[in-house]
Design brief:
By secondary structure, the chain is α+β, with helices and mostly antiparallel strands. It is built from two helices and four strands. The chain starts with a strand and ends with a strand.
Length: 102
């Protein structure tokens, strides 16, 4: 599941928080399963240092919502920051944090 961000931002929209509610429900149904939150930034804007920071903050924003607001166990989650990337075909798609089963 991907959570998308505006350029230069790591603030989650109300829509993205609502979508994370469905993810949290799934995670809580499988309390022994581990999940990875991988943050990304696009490489077309910002310095490498800024993009690393943004990707870290995006992953942490998702983590905080899942744990603090939605009750997912912190022990189920791992945060990874990928920095600026061209991993996805369109630049805006690289402004994302992806939650995936480990």
């Amino acid at each position: 599941m991907g959570t998308f961000f505006n350029i230069g931002s790591y603030t989650l929209s109300a829509k993205e928080i609502m979508n994370l509610g469905y993810v949290a429900k799934f995670m809580k149904a499988y309390p022994d399963k581990k999940f990875k939150i991988v943050g990304y930034a696009d490489s077309a804007t910002g310095s490498a240092k800024r993009n690393q920071y943004l990707s870290q903050q995006r992953a942490e924003a998702v983590y905080k919502v899942l744990v603090d607001r939605l009750g997912v166990k912190a022990s189920q989650l791992e945060i990874v920051a990928k920095g600026g990337t061209n991993e996805f075909p369109e630049i805006p798609l690289n402004r994302v944090a992806i939650v995936d089963a480990d």
